Amino acid sequence: MYLGRFLFFVLIAELGSCLTLLELAQFKSRVYTESNTGVQGFVRLSDTNLSTYEIQSNGIPDHKTGKAASKIEAQTYSIKLPTTPVFASATTCLPDGPIGMAINGVPIFNPYSHDCCDKGKKRLDNLDECWGLVDDLGRYHYMMTPACLFKLTCNNPSQLIGVAFDGFPIYGPNDETGRRITKADLDACNGRYNRYRKYRYHITTEFPYTIGCFRGVPAPGYAGTCLCSNLTEPCPNQQPPNPSTPPASRKRRSVDTGITSLTCCASANNCDHLYNDKSSANTARTTLSFLLFTFTTALTLML
């Protein structure tokens, strides 16, 4: 029975726009105790049936957060996503709160504020050095570039960042050839088809930063009342960000616009992300991922 499930998943991953087994294997949390909570983050994936899989996490980041995240609290996230995302007949605007999940189990939030402004600009001074922040419910989250989550190597394809709650993957700012993505390359939802005709979202240094709408049919509970479909500009009652010294890393604050900018590394060996090879993924899952990768490769060659 389980072999049949894996064979089915391999085939639809190769033919469709769903996350591949290699992409799913990237969902892991670094062995790191968050200083404000004393809690270690975790993220787990499981298949519920042939049509869905489930992501569970406590939302605790696996990197430094600083004093700005002193009110962070462990959460209970559980989201079922389609193994094969379905394109909707029309785009769906984003609900308030979580709209995706990063590979370390931290949720990605709607980039719109309640008054339909750029939340990144409005909350710029509340962001920590990894460009995360905490809301009034103690939920740590990203709504802009999660800069401590990936390496950005010049002229190299970007890594997987996470998955949107319609099942489509979210990638970094470079395409599959290593070229930097621009807004002109993306649709209204911040997504595009790659050269293999697979749809994916990309993070950008401009609004909406992660995704601007759902291109696929969202998971149950994430297609609620539409709060914002267009950005309000200029935003009323918005103060310009305070000048600050950029952290010594690949991300910088732009005082003029309040938007992040990214500088790529000439070599992956000297990039300053905070991941390492240790994770909460157990040995059995790691071994299984390797076996599935071997099987997928062999199947692809036979086809």
Automatic annotation (TrEMBL):
Keyword line: Signal
The UniProt record lists the keyword Protein biosynthesis: no
Pfam families recorded: YHYH
Extent of the signal sequence: 1-18
Superkingdom of the source species: Eukaryota
All copies of domain YHYH, residue ranges: 79-174
Protein name, entry field: YHYH domain-containing protein
Source species: Ciona intestinalis (Transparent sea squirt)
Phylogenetic placement of the source organism: Eukaryota, Metazoa, Chordata, Tunicata, Ascidiacea
